[in-house]
Amino acid sequence: MTILYSKILLVCNGKAGRGELETQLMEVTPPLLDICDTLTIHKTKDKGGAEKICHDTGNEYDLVVILGGDGTVHEAVNGLAQLSSRPKTAILPGGTCNDFARSLNIPMNLRLAAETIANDFHEKDIDLVKADDRYFSNFWGTGLVSQTSENIDTGSKSVLGKLSYYISAFQSIQDPVLLNASVTADGREYNEEVVMLLAANGRSIGTNPLPESISLQDGLIDLYMVKKTGLPLMMEFFKIRSTGEISSASDDIIHIQASDVTIHLDDVKKVDMDGELYEEQKQNLKVLKHHMRFITGEDK
């Protein structure tokens, strides 16, 4: 095997994987050792650990590999995105949903994902979105999105895995919270009462595919303003997933593409960024085009 890198940093969540971290490492380290001179494994112990190690040492490595779920990826990306010189980055799916890894077409099998990195891999310069002083790679959402995340019971997530996301989603739809939102998108203004705002950079949420028309490289985020809920919304949403288009006859969902979006809510609300919850009332989302270089799987 050809040596491709001098130094690789493998960052993993020491508390993730339902106690299976050692098994995961046994799967992924042999292919990585084959392509580098030095492999450093860093197991995070506390929340924020992945962000700190990536920010403090990321520029010392040729490749940073993130082994974990969407929360670990979110932390690591926030550490790396701040660097003036950012290393190439790869993701090994070790969590429940692994949505950003899905958006990058990374195999969900860990061994195959590691071999994707080591063998005939592809590389792409991927957009990130800066949300005030934070970054997200996959999505930003409030209303039904954050309500679903907040309703997930930690214990059921561990036992049921991604099924817990579906259970929480349907519970949230039964009792939606209405939001008054003012949105400015590349100079265009919208004032709407909505049940959900979703700004998508990637193409998967809770393992559910989003429209294939969403691009990680076009310098734009796709903002969906959802004004009604219930069965009609679900039918419309599934149609969007399959076609990438909004029905012209429906005004339940407004779709906006923009590079710079400011969202002002009527009160402080829970906001979900890549599966991590924050509290915000006003936030600016600015696309950083081609901000980080990622190893990807083959285009589907």
TrEMBL record:
Residue ranges of domain DAGKc in the record: 3-135
InterPro entries xref list: ATP-NAD_kinase_N (IPR017438), Diacylglycerol/lipid_kinase (IPR005218), Diacylglycerol_kinase_cat_dom (IPR001206), Lipid_Phosphate_FormReg (IPR050187), NAD/diacylglycerol_kinase_sf (IPR016064), YegS/DAGK_C (IPR045540)
Family annotation (Pfam families): DAGK_cat, YegS_C
Required cofactor(s): Mg(2+)
GO MF term set: ATP binding; ATP-dependent diacylglycerol kinase activity
Entry keyword set: ATP-binding, Kinase, Lipid biosynthesis, Lipid metabolism, Nucleotide-binding, Phospholipid biosynthesis, Phospholipid metabolism, Transferase
Any single Gene Ontology cellular-component annotation: plasma membrane
GO biological process terms on file: phospholipid biosynthetic process
PANTHER family named in the record: LIPID KINASE BMRU-RELATED (PTHR12358:SF107), SPHINGOSINE KINASE (PTHR12358)
Protein family membership: Belongs to the diacylglycerol/lipid kinase family.
Entry-linked NCBIfam families: YegS/Rv2252/BmrU family lipid kinase (TIGR00147)
Name recorded for this polypeptide: DAGKc domain-containing protein
